[in-house]
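Supplementary Methods. Inverse-folding protocol.

Structures were first reduced to a discrete structure-token string of length 409. This string, shown here, constituted the complete conditioning input.
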């Protein structure tokens, strides 16, 4: 598709054509998969120039040299994400965690800016990476309201997530970015996808996705991608060349193939999630439901202003703690008990025991990640089929929570 400057295009149109601008010229309809690990370099002088550019994180100048430096199938997926995020560029990695690691290393600038502000709640893997000290960084855990108080001269990056994993806490991106001033903000946009939220438009420097989730959407690809300025992309690509955390072209092909249906999938899952969240909130066996689309869940009015919708992920707390939650998970027939999210099928998982297991107990308690809390990622199944399954699971959980009452009944 040639860029059309006459009128803005809807996201459905952009998602269908994103990253496919060179196909007509190539005489192709579907994107090709380039599995080359190396590329011919018959002209040594020209190849040297391209090698120099790619090694510094730039674009190829002629030969792609080597697939760790550049791969056209991966580049097409990156162009697609950049288009949907409204970014100059995007850089893809072998997983979301590889993308986060690359951003941390790029921001640390060889140790000159090794201080990181981590705004909790964060995905358990991100939290664990930062707390474990694996990358030799200095990390201050904070919340959105107090983040700016911890800025130091060597602060290289702030990381935040909205909606947060798993409590669906919302952060006002513009307010946080403004408070951070010159400190670049990396916003984990995994829960919203580029369809529902574009963090760069609100002052974030980097919009991160675990593309393993809704972008991949079918539970069969592991990937990460960061949308950003070309200047940041150069820094990220340089780290990627050095560390080798590349995305395989077959995975990139699948991710790119899924982009045209992303807006449809996101909106269909979201509509079902809204219905389920409302019914769960009215269910007597549930003490709280965390979902941005529920009344009172968005006190700062971010829905509509920052997010184009509440998404399809929610968390809810069953009465009876971890035993009741475990019984519910075991009873479900349609909903799959599994970590991950954003897939075509509905997934349920127990954050305290699984995704956030490595987060300290004190932090879990402070964030409200309790024994009874379950996270639900709503898929594309029929809403009534899902509700029937959840109701049956909740009845089983009630047998654990209130054994005496159930015996009388
Ligand atoms: C919000 C969020 N960010 C990052 C990640 C890490 O991504 P990946 O599993 O692709 O490495 C996850 C994974 O669950 C996630 O949920």
């Amino acid at each position: 598709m040639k860029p059309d400057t006459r009128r803005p295009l809807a996201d459905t149109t952009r998602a269908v054509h994103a990253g496919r601008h060179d196909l007509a010229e190539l005489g192709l309809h579907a994107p090709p998969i380039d599995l080359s690990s190396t590329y011919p370099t018959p002209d040594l002088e020209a190849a040297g120039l391209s090698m120099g550019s790619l090694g510094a994180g730039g674009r190829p100048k002629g030969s792609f040299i080597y697939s760790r430096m550049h791969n056209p199938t991966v580049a097409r997926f990156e162009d697609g994400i950049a288009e949907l995020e409204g970014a100059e560029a995007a850089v893809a990695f072998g997983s979301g965690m590889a993308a986060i690691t690359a951003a941390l290393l790029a921001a640390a600038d060889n140790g000159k800016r090794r201080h990181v502000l981590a705004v909790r709640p964060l995905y358990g893997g991100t939290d664990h990476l930062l707390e474990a000290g694996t990358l030799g960084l200095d990390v201050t855990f904070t919340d959105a309201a107090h983040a700016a108080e911890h800025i130091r001269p060597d602060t290289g990056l702030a990381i935040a997530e909205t909606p947060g994993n798993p409590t669906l806490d919302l952060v006002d991106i513009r307010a946080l970015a403004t408070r951070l001033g010159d400190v670049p903000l990396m916003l984990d946009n995994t829960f919203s996808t580029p369809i529902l939220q574009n963090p760069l438009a609100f002052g974030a420097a980097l919009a991160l996705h675990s593309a393993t989730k809704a972008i991949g959407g079918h539970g069969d690809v592991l990937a990460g991608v960061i949308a950003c300025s070309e200047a940041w992309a150069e820094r990220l690509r340089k780290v990627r060349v050095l560390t080798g955390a590349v995305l395989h072209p077959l995975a990139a092909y699948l991710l790119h193939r899924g982009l045209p249906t992303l807006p449809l999938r996101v909106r269909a899952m979201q509509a079902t999630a809204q219905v389920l969240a409302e019914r769960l909130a009215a269910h007597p066996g549930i003490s709280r439901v965390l979902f941005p689309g529920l009344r009172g869940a968005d006190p700062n009015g971010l829905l509509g202003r920052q997010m184009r919708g509440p998404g399809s992920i929610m968390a809810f707390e069953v009465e009876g703690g971890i035993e009741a939650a475990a019984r519910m998970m075991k009873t479900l027939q349609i909903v799959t008990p599994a970590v991950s999210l954003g897939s075509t099928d509905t997934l349920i998982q127990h954050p305290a025991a699984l995704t956030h297991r490595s987060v300290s107990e004190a932090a879990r308690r402070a964030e409200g990640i309790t024994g009874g809390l379950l996270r639900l990622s709503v898929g594309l199944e029929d809403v009534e089929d899902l509700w029937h399954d959840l109701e049956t699971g909740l009845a089983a959980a009630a047998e654990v929570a209130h054994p005496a009452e159930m015996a009388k009944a």
